[in-house]
Amino acid sequence: MRKQHNNPMIKHIAIAGNIGAGKTTLTKMLAKHYGWEIQLEEVDNNPYLADFYKDMSRWAFHLQIFFLNSRFKQVQEIAQIQAPVIQDRTIYEDAYIFAKSLYDQGYFVQRDYDNYLSIFESMIQYVEAPDLLIYLKSDLDNLVRNIENRGRDYEKTIRIDYLQELKTHYDTWIQNYDKGKLLIIDVNTINFVKNPEDFSSIVSKIDRELFGLFS
Ligand SMILES: Nc1ncnc2c1ncn2[C@@H]1O[C@H](COP(=O)(O)OP(=O)(O)OP(=O)(O)O)[C@@H](O)[C@H]1O
Predict the structure, then answer these.
(1) Which atom of ligand 1 is least distant from the CA of 46?
(2) Which residues does the record give as ATP binding sites (predicted)?
(3) Which H or E run contains 111?
């Protein structure tokens, strides 16, 4: 079912969440449902991701710079496209979740982290927040199950404490998020791929945010 988006104020929808939360799948399903343009993460063409998971200290800075630039280019493109766009992960997550937790865990040396933050601060002035942020809230069991099921070779080395650290940063970030509309979807007890009614319930919540009388 295709439903054209008819709220001129809403142009940029973003999906946020931990590794394995289901962002990419939901992004594609929502893009199809609403007829939105789509912006995915650079995973297959990412020159650092596989090396990063083998040796995080060695490649943390390179990977963060790559993702930061890639995400910045996406927001620039979104600003220029007239049609509504749905984006798989935000630039905030790169800085406030990934870079921060890599620094906290000692994978970033101080001067590299300072350098990264300085680049981020320069860029963020030119970034508009999404009109609607959809956060997929997931516990660790669910993340691990999804990561195992998709079976990417380079993700086999992901440690549970790395996911836990990311989750802690996500919790803090979402609690304090005030840049625009926020919709939190608990994905622990639903399966929007297998159960059409779970997908419909997500769509109803989004409809309420986008087209509701008091939204
Ligand atoms: N800034 C970042 N720093 C470190 N790793 C990152 C960063 N951004 C993305 N990644 C990693 O790149 C890969 C992206 O994969 P993908 O787009 O499938 O998303 P995902 O995070 O696994 O989430 P989902 O399963 O919800 O789609 C994951 O291993 C992810 O965590």
Answers:
(1) 12
(2) 17-25
(3) helix 110-124
